[in-house]
Structure formats: C-alpha cells, structure tokens
Fold this sequence. Notes:
Helix content: 40-55%
Strand content: 5-15%
Number of helices: 10
Radius of gyration: 17 Å
Largest sheet: 4 strands, parallel
Mean pLDDT: 96
Strand order of the largest sheet: 1-2-3-4
Number of strands: 4
Order of helices and strands: HEHEHHHHHEHEHH
Structural class: alpha/beta
Amino acid sequence: MIAIDLPGHGATPAEHDSGTFDGLVGSVERYIADNGLAGIDVVGSSMGARIVLELARRGNIGNVVALDPGGFWRSWERTFFKITIGVSGRLLRAIRPSLPMLSGNAASRTALLAQLSAHPWALDPQVVATELASLSTTSTFDALVHDLASGREQTGPAADATGRIVIGWGRHDRLCLPRQAARAKAAFPSADLHWFESSGHFPMWDMPEETIAVILAATR
C-alpha cells in the first residue's frame, strides 16, 4: 500500500497549481506514471475520492474505491459546502495551539467534528488531534475550497480500461449530503454504491472495520 501526501498537504510541498482540483489530479497522474504504477488500484476519501473518480474517468488505473466524494453538489449545496468547511478551516487555524487539549475532551471533540462524524465523541482523541492539526496547516486549503465550490460538477463515466468502482457514502454525511450519491451513481453507472449506515463524512473514522472490508473486497 502506498499512502501519498498530496502537494500542499502533509510533508509534500505545494506546486504552482496545487490550489486547484485539476492541478492535484495532474500531480497524482504524474506520480503514477513516474513510478510505473499504471493499472494500480486507488482509494480516496472526500476530495481524494473525487480525485480517484476523475482518474477512473481518464483511465490508466485499476479498481477504484471513492468514499463520500466531493464534486456532486449543486445550487445552494455549493454555498453550504464553501461556507461551512471554510469557517471550519479558519477556526482550526485560530485554535491550533489548543487542538490537543480540545481533541481530548469528548464535548469539544463533538463540537469540532459534528459536521464530519456521526459520533465524534467516540473517536480516538489522538487521531482527532493529528487530523485537525494537519488540516489546520494545509497551505492550499482556502484556495481548494474556493476552487471546489465554484468549479465544474464531476463528470463520468469511467474509461473502459478502469476496473471495478465502489462509491461509499455515509448515511449521516453533513458535508457531502447523501442526496448527492444518486448523482455520483448517475455519472458513473458502472459503480456499485455502498451505504455506511452509521457513518458521517469519513467512514474510516466512524465505521473502520466495514471500510476496510469494502476496500479489500473491491481491490482483490
């Protein structure tokens, strides 16, 4: 398994176009090509899920698992996404020094992650602290929120060479609303749609064992 930091995320420096969705897709495509990974299975979550769906559309990859992908919002949903996630990003930057303490308290953890998790009080405090700290230091965050909210809707279908596609969606996703799953399925009609019944936006947080099972079943 190869886990990559997108440019501008984690330890990977931003490139000139890393504040755009298309720029990030291009970076991943180059990574796959430069490392001889054509036909590799890909898994993504949220924006990463949209990236792997776009790779599926372009071809040159194998099986695909996309968990709660962005890019299928319309009308007021775009504004909802931009405002809510934008405010969250600014808040995290403002309270960054206090994140370890806030993540350790069930009440404040719930307040911070109410939009992203179906049961944030039950999440591991250290995982939450690490995730939020990483989000608060992502240099391209604001640019990406603007680009994602104002850009085109994600289109399909998958290229003929692409393998199996599974789109997973949390029933309690409050960022990429469950109603958007039908649009994702319409864009990628060959995909299987899997519902995570007790999950918010991140199934790997709320239902990790089922998420693992879905990924393994899709990539074997």
